[in-house]
Design goal:
Elements: H1 14-35, E1 40-45, H2 62-69, E2 74-77, E3 81-92, E4 100-111, E5 117-126, E6 129-132, E7 137-138, H3 142-155
Antiparallel strand pairs: 1-3, 2-3, 3-4, 4-5, 5-6, 6-7
Length: 158
C-alpha cells in the first residue's frame, strides 16, 4: 500500500477556488451597479388622499373642504372663491436621465357667495388639452382656461 502526501502549503487546484470567488464577487458588483440604475417616480405638489373628493358633496362648507383636503396650493376669486390643489407626477426610467412628466392634475373646488361647494373639477391633460376627469369634459370657459393654462405651463419643467 502506497500513501502519497501533498507538500505542505500547496493545493491540488490553487486557482479554482479564487476564480470561483472572483466570479461571484464580479456578479454581485454588476447586480449592485444595475440596481442603482432602475427607474424612479417623483410626486410634486398636492397628494390627493384616497376617497377625499367623495367626502365633499355639493353644498359642503368651505371649512369642511379645508378639513378633508387641507390647505390649497393657490386660491382664486372668480364669481366666488376657487381652491386649487396642484400636483405633478414624473418618472425617470434610468438613473441620471431627465424626468418625464407622467401626469399633471389641478383639482378645483368652486364655492358660491355663501362659501358652499358649487362644483368640483379634477383637471388634467388628455391629448394635449385641459380635461375635467370628473365631468369628463373639456373646459370651454375662456375665463376659467385663462387661469388653468398658466398653472399647467408652470408645472411643465421640460
Amino acid at each position: 500500500m502506497t500513501v502519497a502526501f501533498a507538500r505542505k502549503g500547496t493545493r491540488a487546484h490553487p486557482t479554482r477556488g479564487k476564480a470561483g470567488w472572483r466570479a461571484v464577487a464580479a456578479a454581485a458588483l454588476v447586480a449592485a451597479a444595475l440596481a442603482g440604475c432602475t427607474g424612479e417616480q417623483f410626486q410634486k405638489g398636492y397628494i390627493l388622499p384616497p376617497g377625499a373628493l367623495e367626502q365633499i358633496p355639493i353644498g359642503s362648507s368651505q371649512d369642511q373642504v379645508l378639513i378633508v383636503m387641507g390647505t390649497p396650493s393657490t386660491v382664486a376669486t372668480l364669481d366666488g372663491e376657487v381652491f386649487y390643489y396642484i400636483s405633478q407626477r414624473s418618472e425617470r426610467k434610468v438613473a441620471f436621465m431627465n424626468q418625464q412628466v407622467v401626469d399633471q392634475r389641478v383639482i378645483a373646488i368652486y364655492f358660491d357667495k355663501k362659501r358652499q361647494v358649487r362644483r368640483l373639477a379634477n383637471y388634467g391633460l388628455q391629448d394635449g388639452k385641459i380635461f375635467d376627469f370628473i365631468s369628463r369634459t373639456t373646459t370651454t370657459s375662456g375665463q376659467e382656461l385663462s387661469y388653468l393654462t398658466p398653472l399647467f405651463k408652470l408645472l411643465s419643467f421640460n
